[in-house]
Amino acid sequence: MHLDALATARGGEEDWDLYWIRLPLIAACDGVDKAIAHARAHPEGTTWYAAAHIAELLAGAGRTEEAAAVLEPHASANSHDLAGYLIDLGRIEDALSLLQRRTPQQPELSGGPWHDDPPF
Question: Which residues 6+ apart lie within 8 Å of 89 measured at CB?
């Protein structure tokens, strides 16, 4: 209810920072596939950070192969999670190759108040 009120206050659009909290609840009530459909329908549902949450839902349901497939297009931003799933699948060489590549820094979230600059 509280998350619904926050979404309503924002004109019906729920910020991903709160939305990902709802996903496990949707999965528990309506199933993983329903939660994933909700996540993908969200305006930020195709981002690298959404992919990590979707993969976590899939892996939690024992669908590790699908979890890895969700992360593969976002491998540079989610390399450690993807490598973990690859290891779980017995794809050790693929995981090592992924981790040995130099990974760029994750892109910054737009509009977020977090940064490394000093306040003054």
Answer: 64, 65, 68
DSSP symbol at 31: -
Compute the distance between CA of residue 52 and CA of residue 50 in angstroms, rounded to an integer.
5
Lookup: tokens for 94:
């693929």
* Residue-wise pLDDT tens digits, 83-120: 999 999 999 999 999 999 854 555 555 555 555 555 55
**pLDDT (0 to 100) of residue 51:** 96
For the chain, percent of residues with pLDDT exceeding 70: 72
Helix (H) or strand (E) holding 10: none
What's the 3-state SS for 43-105? CCCCCHHHHHHHHHHHHHCCCHHHHHHHHHHHCCCCHHHHHHHHHHCCCHHHHHHHHHCCCCC
| Residue 1 pLDDT level (bands cut at 50, 70, 90) | very low
pTM for this entry = 0.72
Task: Name, in order, each residue with C-beta under 8 angstroms of 30's C-beta and a sequence gap of 6 or more.
Answer: none
